[in-house]
Specification:
Layout lengths: L3 E6 L9 H12 L3 E6 L2 H10 L6 E2 L2 E2 L3 H25 L4 E3 L8 E5 L2 H4 L3 E6 L1 H8 L3 E4 L2 E3 L5 E3 L2 H12 L3 E5 L6 E2 L2 E2 L5 H9 L7 H13 L4 E5 L7 E4 L6
Parallel strand pairs: 1-2, 1-11, 2-8, 5-8, 11-14
Antiparallel strand pairs: 3-4, 6-7, 9-10, 12-13, 14-15
Helix pairs in contact: 2-3, 6-8
């Protein structure tokens, strides 16, 4: 079984990581696990876009990304969010590799739907040799940016990117760390979520906006070999669990 754990940390969550988060990373490293963190930065990108008078528009939780918004996205993710997250990890005694700073692409993508979303990609492949080499040295940290065959970069929804990278790496588990304790229905966390229940919640519009692509990405990962996905705000506390057993339920 793979010893790789992929963790997606949302833009809001990067500012509120607890000591428990870093303690869990230490425990996993001690147990021989390899860890890849995919970080978002949505709130920060929206804030900077507003300051620059760029439109902030999302369709089905996916950010519509013009050429100008892509430049802001790259600047915020690689110039602000990733260095800050790497500094936090380092300050807690963890070896860390900021993977986008090396000039090598972590993932490759085609356009999701350029007419609708602009410069947004769908991950088609990963730089597996580079990722595994980096993870052998420390905790990898990467932004959800993927290169086209022409060498241009596209913005990828962070949850979708993390799920794609997890399945292509053959990760044993995917954690989607967000700013809520799990999938919420009537102010309560659902501890287990089946595909059937998720589709019903989508249809009833109980789940929408940013949580929708998160759950869809989670089930996509499960369909393609990741055994378990956890949606939570703390690694050490169970939130909403999705497992392969729940695909057919």
């Amino acid at each position: 079984m793979s010893q790789i754990i992929v963790i997606k940390v949302g833009g809001n969550a990067t500012n509120h990581l607890t000591n428990g988060f870093f303690e869990q990373l230490h425990a996993w490293r001690k147990a021989g696990k390899q860890i890849l963190i995919v970080h978002g930065g949505g709130p920060q990108i929206s804030e900077w876009s507003n300051q620059l008078d760029l439109p902030v528009n999302k369709i089905n939780g996916i950010r519509v990304t013009s050429q100008q918004t892509l430049k802001v996205t790259q600047a915020v993710l690689l110039g602000l969010v990733q260095p800050a997250l790497c500094s936090q990890l380092s300050a807690h005694g963890l070896s860390v590799i900021g993977m986008n700073a090396t000039g090598q692409a972590v993932a490759f993508a085609d356009y999701l739907d350029q007419a609708v979303y602009g410069e947004v990609g769908s991950v088609t492949a990963i730089n597996e040799a580079y990722i595994k080499h980096a993870l052998s040295a420390g905790i990898g940290v990467c932004a959800p940016l993927a290169a086209t065959h022409e060498g241009n970069y596209l913005n990828v929804n962070g949850d979708v990117a993390a799920a794609a990278i997890a399945r292509l790496l053959g990760a044993e588990k995917l954690y989607l760390v967000t700013d809520v304790p799990g999938v919420m229905v009537n102010s309560q966390v659902i501890d287990q979520l089946s595909l059937q229940k998720a589709n019903q919640l989508f249809e009833d519009e109980v789940i929408k906006s940013g949580m929708k692509p998160k759950i869809k990405a989670a089930f996509d990962a499960l369909k393609h070999g990741v055994k378990e996905v956890e949606i939570t705000n703390q690694l050490q506390h169970p939130g909403t669990n999705l497992s392969v057993d729940q695909l057919a339920v």
